[in-house]
Specification:
The chain is built from 11 helices and 14 strands. By secondary structure, the protein is of the alpha/beta class. It folds into 2 domains: 225 residues, Aspartate Aminotransferase, domain 2, CATH 3.40.640.10; 124 residues, Alpha-Beta Complex (Aspartate Aminotransferase, domain 1), CATH 3.90.1150. Helix 4 links the parallel strand 2 and strand 3. The two termini are 27 Å apart. It binds pyridoxal-5'-phosphate (PLP).
């Protein structure tokens, strides 16, 4: 089977893990600090705070901003479900917004229609290695005095107008889940330039205290700590990031060139203001289901786009979320129907990619 996505893990990770074994420090310590510093360098933020995963990082970002029961947070309908569930976890209500047809990121004109006195924040998602329109997000945030939490879980290495995603708003969040551009197995990072928010996020993940080893707790907090093992893998992965990004761009370029003649398979639009990371190479097609089934028969795994939030079974009878008229999410639904992500791992060999290309051409041979 050619996997749609898999991590690039080798002796480099092992070498960093040996440092953990040698040091005997396993919960967060020196290597976690080193990994946080690498994240500060990559993104240019003042603070980078490692968390167990991206979902709790979003939760902490929202709580640090005092967002909770009675507050509404606008999220895109086309995203991984953790975006909305983290809002629910904070006690606030996610309000679903449709996305742009071209970038699949939040439609800011439609977001503006959802704003009411309960709206406290807007949470753009930088989807599939692209960036949300942060010019427009920051414009409406300032017009309506909203907080901005950027879900950059999929955005490691992505830049908008030269600035790393996750650094435009009050707080941004990265994820290092196993399928991400770089991974720690599980892991998240809170990014912020705001000293007070950084201190609050740290306390929230550390049982409500500003340091470890003290047992008088100023605030109520939890345990979302990182581990040195995650940091070790993250350090090795961060060193590989430029090479991973370059390889993924080459994979994308080859798919684009070789499949350009297929009239029924459309490449996704790239906003010229964005320096994307081709985490996944995706296309739009009217035959997504048939194509993915055909490729699976050829032992090639692909991935459909995220199932839109307004259609998720778990939300159908739920009063924890807010959705308007379903028609409002027609773009998210259409994007889901048409989107397909092809094998895009760093580890995809030239020969494997050739097989994917040949099989796709075969599939369309009788259809064009
Ligand atoms: C858009 C988005 N938001 C949030 C998350 C949650 O991150 P994690 O899996 O690290 O909890 C993910 C991915 O997993 C994601 O893709």
């Amino acid at each position: 089977m050619i996997n749609q996505i898999e991590p690039w893990i080798d002796y480099n990770e092992l070498r960093e893990l040996k440092r953990v074994v040698d040091s005997t420090f396993v919960t967060e310590a020196m290597l976690t600090e080193e990994f946080e510093e690498m994240n500060r360098e990559l993104t240019g933020t003042k603070h980078a705070i490692a968390m167990s995963n991206g979902t709790v990082a979003i939760y902490c970002a929202l709580k640090a901003l005092d967002i909770g029961p009675g507050d509404e947070v606008i999220v895109p309908a086309m995203t991984f479900i953790a975006t909305a569930n983290a809002v629910i976890m904070a006690g606030a209500t996610p309000v679903f917004c449709d996305v742009y047809e071209d970038t699949f990121c939040m439609d800011i004109e439609k977001a503006e229609e959802l704003i009411n006195p309960r709206t406290k924040a807007i949470m753009p998602v930088h989807l599939y290695g692209q960036s949300a329109d942060m010019e427009k997000v920051m414009e409406i945030a300032s017009k309506y005095d909203l907080k901005v939490v950027e879900d950059a879980a999929q955005g490691v290495g992505v830049r908008f107008l030269g600035k790393h995603v996750g650094t435009f708003g009050d707080v941004g969040v990265l994820s290092f889940y196993g399928n991400k551009t770089i991974t720690c197995g599980e892991g998240g990072m809170v990014l912020t330039d705001n000293d007070e928010l950084a201190a609050r996020c740290y306390k929230l993940k550390n049982h409500g205290r500003a340091k470890k080893g003290i047992f008088v707790h100023e605030d109520i907090g939890f345990n979302f700590s990182f581990t040195e093992m995650q940091a070790a893998v993250g350090i090795a992965q961060m060193k590989k990031l430029p090479e991973i990004m370059e390889r993924k761009r080459k994979i994308y370029d080859r798919y684009l060139t070789e499949l350009a003649a297929l009239k029924r398979l459309h490449p996704v639009f790239i906003d010229p203001r964005t320096d994307p990371v081709f985490w996944f190479t995706s296309f739009l097609s009217n035959e997504t289901e048939d194509l993915s089934e055909y490729l699976l028969d050829c032992k090639i795994q692909t991935r459909r786009f995220f199932y839109p939030l307004h259609l998720q079974p778990c939300y159908q009878e739920s009063n924890l979320i807010k959705k308007g008229n379903n028609k409002k999410y027609s773009v998210s639904k259409r994007t889901y129907d048409k989107g397909i992500s092809l094998p895009s791992s760093y580890t995809l060999s030239e020969k494997e990619q050739e097989k994917v290309i040949i099989k796709i051409k075969n599939f369309y041979a009788n259809r064009n």
